[in-house]
Write a structure and sequence with these properties.
DNA-binding; homodimer; two-stranded antiparallel ribbon; elongated
Chain lengths: 129, 129
DNA sequence: TATAATATCTGTAGTAACTACAGGTGCAAG
DNA sequence: CTTGCACCTGTAGTTACTACAGATATTATA
């Protein structure tokens, strides 16, 4: 049983984030010491690890709630997990495509711009009309 | 001189967004009718257009403030505009790289998962340990 | 002209996913 | 025993909006 600060250090997360995840129901309410300090078990620590890794992989809190919902039923299947993951991968692919398109546009526009110390930049002209 | 609703329609923006941009100082305070309704000139409309196009191109409000600061001095140079734009392009390139790395990881992980109606998905196992 | 239906006005609250702060205890070391 | 850090709580701030409530204004229809 470790305290919040140790858990934060052990998982490389922010101490406030842990309280936040508890508040929004991603983490179970932990045990408490006699004086009210939170005490985390190894299972608590694993669950936080899962949450943090999923967040790093770009899953939203809503998606995480879905995944944890499956995990918490204890009889989730590969198919269910894969559905969430596949959707997420598609979302990411879409974001990548959007950003690429955006970058192409900006590259093209900034190529119009001489980048010299002259006034009336064509980039601004283009955006302002 | 058009009113806020018409401006929103003309620029394809949300009527509330216009008030928001005014509040945070991206748009100048417009003229008002005798009864207090906002009245926008063609210049106002062009400025909003600039803001909206930059937002579509992924510029943050802070970056926009910088660009508008330049534009408002009336003697901005190509070099100054290009500096902001180039930084932004680099930020986008970084985001693309991050998302691609993320997608590769997820692709790899979900390949481990059979996607069948079997329990104990290896994807969850991997994330939970 | 009267009334009904929009449109606009204001301030404020909600969204996502945290982060930071203030003011108050608990605990461990010197 | 007291100094200092960790922890407790609730709340406010962040980004870029969006939505609402309640009050006027304007426009359209009868």
């Amino acid at each position: 049983m470790i305290k919040r600060g140790e858990l934060a250090k052990a998982t490389g997360s922010n101490i406030e984030t842990i309280r936040y995840y508890e508040k929004i129901g991603l983490l179970h309410e932990p045990d408490r010491s006699a004086s009210g300090h939170r005490l985390y078990s190894l299972d608590d620590q694993k669950r936080l690890g899962f949450v943090l890794r999923c967040r790093e992989l770009g899953f939203s809190i809503a998606e995480l709630r879905e995944l944890l919902g499956l995990v918490d039923t204890k009889d989730y299947t590969c198919a269910e997990v894969l559905a969430v993951t596949t959707q997420h991968i598609e979302d990411i692919a879409k974001k990548i495509a959007d950003l690429k398109r955006l970058k192409r546009t900006l590259d093209r526009m900034s190529a119009e711009c001489s980048g010299e110390a002259v006034p009336d930049c064509p980039l601004v002209e283009a955006l302002f009309e």
